[in-house]
Amino acid sequence: MKTGMKIAIGVAALALVGIGALVTPALIETSTLASSDPTLFPSPASTTGSPDFSDGYVNLGHGTRIPDDGPGDCAAPSWIYIGSDDDGPMHAEMLGAELVDMGAREFATGTVGVDDQGRIATYVVAPGDTEAAIGERLCIVNGTALSDLNHYVAGDAIQPGDILNVIPNPNDEWPVPDSDGPS
């Protein structure tokens, strides 16, 4: 065997030994955690049936369960649901608590608009605003869904001056996903 080949085999063997030395402590730690706290890695028998989300979670319907305290300082959460029920037409709705404006904050300094009943209905995007921060400001857990709710095309970003509807319009038409996939 040539010297170069011997060196390559030796380096490879050392690399495998080194990787094994790095991984072994992590495997031992995981094994210790699993044996000391069975909730971290529940057995298959303990995962059958519906999980119990009653402690600290609220069931909003449509299979949506979220923490019962809202994002940031919000007392109660809201959730933008976009989907269909039992193969029905696509629709959007606001689940959970009524929206609350928690005040301007970093990345959410725009203007909140209200409807005739004084409920939050729109948000005018300011420079530097992000959907997640707007959601936190208005107590919407999934604030990043605001672009979907406002029919932004994937990859399009909100822009200063955009007026976002924050309450779903029941008359909006939603495209039906193509079940056959791309052609």
Question: Which short descriptors sum up this protein?
Answer:
183 residues, alpha+beta, 2 domains, three-stranded antiparallel β-sheet, 3 helices
Q: Short description, anyone?
A:
With 183 residues, the protein is an alpha+beta fold. It has helices spanning 3-36, 131-137, 146-149, and strands at 57-61, 64-67, 78-83, 91-96, 111-114, 120-124, 163-165. The protein folds into two domains: 3-42; 57-165, no CATH class.
Overview of this protein structure:
There is one protein chain. It is built from three helices and seven strands. The chain has 183 residues and is α+β, with helices and mostly antiparallel strands. The chain has two domains: 3-42; 57-165, no CATH class. The strands form three sheets. A three-stranded antiparallel β-sheet has the order 5-6-7. The protein has a two-stranded antiparallel ribbon with strand order 1-2. Strand 1 and strand 2 (64-67) form a beta hairpin. It is elongated, with a radius of gyration of 25 Å. The model is unreliable at 30-50 (pLDDT under 50).
Gap from first CA to last CA = 54 Å
Q: How much strand? A: 15-25%
The proportion of residues forming helix, as a percent range, comes to: 10-25%
- Count of helical stretches: 3
Radius of gyration: 25 Å
- How many strands? 7
Biggest β-sheet description: 3 strands, antiparallel
Question: Order of strands across the widest beta sheet?
Answer: 5-6-7
**Order of H and E elements:** HEEEEEEHHE
Give the overall form: elongated
Structural class: alpha+beta
Uncertain segments are 30-50
Overall mean pLDDT stands at 79
